[in-house]
Amino acid sequence: MKKTLSILLVSLIIFSFASCGEKPQNDLSSETVSIVEYNKLVPEYASKGMIDTVIFPVGASVDEVVEHYNGNGPAVDEHGAHLSSDEEVSDADTSSETISIPELDDEITYDLTIRGLDTGDRIIKMYSYDTRYFYYNASPMSGIAYIAQSIDSFGYMIGHSTYTDVKGTIEAQPVSDKIAEIDDMFFMVEPLVNSKMLSYQYGDYMLNFFFDSNDKLFYTTIYNVHVWTE
Hints:
Layout (H helix, E strand, L loop, with lengths): L1 H29 L10 H6 L15 H8 L15 H6 L22 H6 L4 E6 L2 E6 L9 E4 L13 H6 L7 E4 L16 E7 L2 E7 L5 E8 L6
């Protein structure tokens, strides 16, 4: 009887040790391992002077941008490429061109060619809802010089994605990581104080992300470093 009990006790001890030895492995398999997944859209578009959710890139023809937003130009897809006649018809119901165009003195301005050519302003702004295009009054033929976008871009969500989200998913190191100055936010009527600014350069283009005092993304901008001097 004692021998049987001894064997049972030894078996229990061995089983206990075996269980303890397996526990770390089980815990490891149940843990969620954080893996940084780089955002491949950023270099793919930024190196071409584009923000993925903006129709036109930096350098686009001012006239073409104006014609598009006034509904006079050829239909283009979300990246500025011209659509064929068949594509225009199939996309007619969802096209932004079906939206009524506000007058020039309305809050949302589409056509600023008159303002741009008849005033002494150095930098001319054209905007459509959440996208703002800028060009130089003295040289409109050089095309769009700066673009600012206040809606979701590159998969990051305005008002939700954080400074850490963006910085942690872009493979390149930022060329600038600072508190934005008023001049950095010239595209806003009322710049936000204590805003963080992350800047990444891809070839000739500088891509910027702006974050409010709560570290939430509120603007994405891009420009050509050889053209934009403001």
